Amino acid sequence: MIHDWLFVQHHAHQDNRSFEEVRDIMMEGVRTLMETKMCKPDRLAFDLIYAGIDSFVARKLWGD
């Protein structure tokens, strides 16, 4: 949810965080959920989420 809010804030010119900062905030949240067992720890799922968030499609959406 924080990641999505930061994305909206970026497009509203209300936040100056970089794509990489927002990506890393999202991944820190996922890591924390897995480490605290709030969701199943799964390295493959973590890597796939990262790949999607760091993809050229995500970067294009960030820039548009």
What is the makeup of the main sheet?
none
Element pattern in H and E: HHHH
Number of helices: 4
Structural class: mainly alpha
Work out the strand percent. under 5%
Number of domains: 1
State the low-pLDDT regions, or none: none
Overall geometry? globular
Radius of gyration: 12 Å
Percent of residues in helices comes to: over 70%
How many DSSP E strands?
A: 0
Q: For the residues shown, what is the average pLDDT?
A: 94
N-to-C terminal Cα separation, in Å? 20 Å
3D architecture notes:
The protein has 64 residues and is mainly α. The protein has one domain. It contains 4 helices and no strands. α1 packs antiparallel against α2 and α2 runs antiparallel to α3. The chain is globular and about 35 Å long.
SSE blueprint:
Blueprint: H1 2-11, H2 19-35, H3 43-53, H4 56-63
Helix pairs in contact: 1-2, 2-3
Task: From the structure above, extract its key features.
64 residues, mainly alpha, 4 helices
Q: Quick recap of the structure?
A:
The chain has 64 residues and is an all-alpha fold. 72% of the residues lie in helices and 0% in strands. Helix 1 packs antiparallel against helix 2 (19-35) and helix 2 (19-35) runs antiparallel to helix 3.
